[in-house]
């Protein structure tokens, strides 16, 4: 079965593979378009398997509220190099993942991979394989989170940090709420609080922190001989400082250090004539906790020249 240049172009549009790869696949498939697609998929699987061992710690974090489902999503997809994050095809894939999360609310990455990509005739796993083949790097969907209701998202540094904040409020549609919500999301991006409020700090974390503070006092010549109840009061005072640094609602608001985020929230709720409660937040920073690839450009260039 013969095939034309038009067939090659059509296969290329369907699979995003290179012209020569498409031509070879059509030749191998005797011009059968579906068979050629399968051949390229299998080739993609082999390429993906080969690349899977390579470190992917770059990429992008996307935080968005899906316009169709109104579900907020924050997702991190990793690549091997920073250049890929600027690749249109890569960004299309990240958006496709976010859209599929918003539509299906999967339990984890494995569940997401098995889902049909929204608007496409393939699963997320197949789409991932295709992108690995066309982009030529190992790509990984690392993690995601989603939230319903009143949600604000914020992306900082072109996808270096993504934040999603959930609110419980009756003033979401009032003018001024959106600016307030964006301020809270930006605060989280900039200051990186570990917890929402004092109640959110786990008891064991607090106990550990108190032990550290007691040890610091015990090692201080001026303080170690003070009465136990005084030392206890000092520990409580310093725990207050810990809350201020680590809990979002206790932190000084970045745009006005004279008030805390809690005070800014109360002030905004009063001004808008209703109530606002920050329910939860998620902050992803690209590549945090991942082993980074050691680059040695001199060696890379030497290899290329050889």
TrEMBL record:
The cross-references to Pfam families, in alphabetical order and at most eight, read: EF_TS (PF00889)
Translation elongation factor EFTs/EF1B dimerisation domain ranges (all copies): 72-288
| Annotated localization | Cytoplasm
Superkingdom of origin: Bacteria
SUPFAM superfamilies in UniProt: Elongation factor Ts (EF-Ts), dimerisation domain, UBA-like
Q: Which PROSITE patterns match?
A: EF_TS_1 (PS01126), EF_TS_2 (PS01127)
Coiled coil ranges = none
- GO CC terms on record? cytoplasm
UniProt keywords, alphabetically: Cytoplasm, Elongation factor, Protein biosynthesis
Q: Which InterPro entries match?
A: EF-Ts_dimer_sf, Transl_elong_EFTs/EF1B, Transl_elong_EFTs/EF1B_dimer, Transl_elong_Ts_CS, UBA-like_sf
UniProt-annotated stretches for the region Involved in Mg(2+) ion dislocation from EF-Tu: 81-84
Listed GO molecular functions?
Answer: translation elongation factor activity
Q: Sum up the protein's function in the record's words.
A: Associates with the EF-Tu.GDP complex and induces the exchange of GDP to GTP. It remains bound to the aminoacyl-tRNA.EF-Tu.GTP complex up to the GTP hydrolysis stage on the ribosome.
**NCBIfam families, per database record:** tsf
The family line of this record is: Belongs to the EF-Ts family.
Which protein is depicted? Elongation factor Ts
Organism phylogeny? Bacteria, Bacillati, Bacillota, Clostridia, Eubacteriales
- Whichever gene encodes this chain, its name is tsf
């Amino acid at each position: 079965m013969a095939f034309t240049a038009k067939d090659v172009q059509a296969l290329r549009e369907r699979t995003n593979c290179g012209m020569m790869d498409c031509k070879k696949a059509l030749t191998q498939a005797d011009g059968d378009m579906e068979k050629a697609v399968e051949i390229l998929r299998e080739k993609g699987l082999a390429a993906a398997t080969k690349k899977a061992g390579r470190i992917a710690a770059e990429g992008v974090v996307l935080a968005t509220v899906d316009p169709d489902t109104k579900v907020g999503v924050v997702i991190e997809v990793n690549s091997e190099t920073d250049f890929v994050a600027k690749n249109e095809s890569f960004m299309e894939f990240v958006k496709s993942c976010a859209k599929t999360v918003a539509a299906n609310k999967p339990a984890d990455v494995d569940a997401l991979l098995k889902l049909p990509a929204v608007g496409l005739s393939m699963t997320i796993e197949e789409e991932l394989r295709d992108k690995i083949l066309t982009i030529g790097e190992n790509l990984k969907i690392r993690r995601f989170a989603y939230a319903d209701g009143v949600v604000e998202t914020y992306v900082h540094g072109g996808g270096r940090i993504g934040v999603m904040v959930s609110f419980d409020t009756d003033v979401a549609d009032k003018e001024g709420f959106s600016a307030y919500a964006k301020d809270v999301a930006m605060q989280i991006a900039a200051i990186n609080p570990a917890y929402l409020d004092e109640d959110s700090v786990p008891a064991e974390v607090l106990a550990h922190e108190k032990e550290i503070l007691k040890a610091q006092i015990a090692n201080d010549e001026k303080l170690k001989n003070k009465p136990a109840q005084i030392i206890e009061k000092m520990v409580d005072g310093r725990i207050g400082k810990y809350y201020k640094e680590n809990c979002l609602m206790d932190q000084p608001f970045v745009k006005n250090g004279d008030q805390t985020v809690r005070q800014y929230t109360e002030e905004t709720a009063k001004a808008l004539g209703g109530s606002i409660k920050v329910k939860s937040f998620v902050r992803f920073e690209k590549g945090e906790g991942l082993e980074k690839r050691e680059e040695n450009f001199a060696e890379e260039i030497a290899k290329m020249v050889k």
